[in-house]
Amino acid sequence: MALTKRPNLIRNLQTAFPRGTPFDHHELAKLGVSSALAHHYLKSGWLRRLGRGVFMFPNDTLRREDCLQFLSPGVPGFHVGGKTALAWRGVRHNLPVREPLSLWGEGKTRLPDWFRKPFPARYTARNPFSKLPKNCGLQPLPETPGGVLVSVPERALLEMLSEVGVHQGIEEARNIMEGARALRPEVLARLLKNCRRVKVLRLCVQWAEELNLPWATAAKQAVGNQLGQSRWTARLKDGTTLVLKP
Prior knowledge:
Blueprint: H1 6-16, E1 23-24, H2 25-30, H3 35-44, E2 48-51, E3 54-56, H4 64-71, E4 79-80, H5 82-88, E5 101-104, H6 113-116, E6 121-124, E7 138-139, E8 150-151, H7 153-162, H8 170-178, H9 185-193, H10 198-210, H11 216-223, E9 232-235, E10 241-244
Parallel strand pairs: 5-6
Antiparallel strand pairs: 1-3, 2-3, 4-5, 7-8, 9-10
């Protein structure tokens, strides 16, 4: 490609990729940018390298939502879940400004440094559910219908409870759950029936009863005899002991 035509191609790239959006060499190739030409753009200062095969335009500021969408295709089941999903859907309790994003998926992965530096995040593949259809309980936010998948409040609550004693404090989790009064009983019941963690089941039922949440009875009925007949006791990382009744 002649050098005189390259600025025109750069303008085409800037039209194809919104400002603040990361893009990779596969997307560049679709637009006619070879590896050699991408290298030329880097040396000329028309592109900036974020990581291996990942680029952005110079002097741009990465946008969180666009970065999440970029990462999503590379991680099966990738979604925003747990406490972050609850907060994004309006269920929160004194959420710190720099609270790490709670990201979930299937299988191990490492979030790239170029993402984690501007957007502190924690990724987990410890799925508390089994036999759920693909993307069950996962939807984009209403204001971004084509955006990254985000757990609905019912799934997000159970994901957060699965993190209690791992990355989630007891008191904060209980305070957040107290604000989750508008959960849909039928959606929660389906998720509880497919939840394989006794800790999550017992926390959900016990706290819902103690907090007098409107859906407490539906949760207890959905769990049925999955709770067992003995107490559940666990020693948490902070040294406290969590005891849950049968």
